[in-house]
């Protein structure tokens, strides 16, 4: 019995709705928690697939909309951007207690640590880094109307709308007064760049949300489309720069393999993106600062929920969690120092 899977009902649904799969099935949890839950499945013939459902317990439906995520991956699957192939969507909660969708299983490695990148050659590390950017450029070149995503969201004033959203979130979740945050918000408002068109904005694009062929140094699947919308393409490029560590950086980072030998400098990624897209990247420091701000607000929200006993998980290092918020705010302010 696998938590979150009603095996008899899900088996019957798969047999009826997904061509090429035949039960009985096995299921194994790949990733779970406060985000959508991912299972690896296999049918009686050994064919692998992936099933995604919302987190167990009470969650806001809009925050974990399976139909929306299924729609996005299906649409992007019509483009050169590598994504798993969608196989079916179940919106009948009687089947498994919540909606879910099924997609193909893609062989690859989620590079969320230097340890996982240690098996790669130096050449493969560099190649994968540039392919990460090339895939992002492909995503940002997609005609959203042509693939049926033109009505996904508003296209204009992306950063302005995001600032309003996260400023409200900060006001609702902050656990202390932080003058530096007020200064940061004011700087972000005063130096807001002109948006260069509207594209698909993944919202969480980085090595940790991609599958990589570690031998070839190629991105073979882009995952985790929960935060995807339409908006400013440079927000995705700036977001990569929150996790990216340049060679020799002594900062202990998490959820990213970079910083070890073979991975290029972030500035090289920015230059490649500019060459691939023709976009002006001179304000990329702003987008990195904005991304650091966004993650600081999210981090404060998580810290607040732990502090108030709203999280059932075992308590993490609360002081480190609090300090990480402070660190991101200070770093964002440093990034904005040289902006005119």
TrEMBL record:
Domain Aminoglycoside phosphotransferase: from-to ranges: 27-250
Identify the Pfam families for this entry. Answer: APH
Organism per entry: freshwater metagenome
This one is known as Unannotated protein
Identify the SUPFAM superfamilies for this entry.
Answer: Protein kinase-like (PK-like) (SSF56112)
InterPro entries associated with the record: ACAD10-like, ACAD10_11_N, Aminoglycoside_PTrfase, Kinase-like_dom_sf
Q: Which CDD domains match?
A: ACAD10_11_N-like
What lineage does the source organism belong to?
A: unclassified sequences, metagenomes, ecological metagenomes
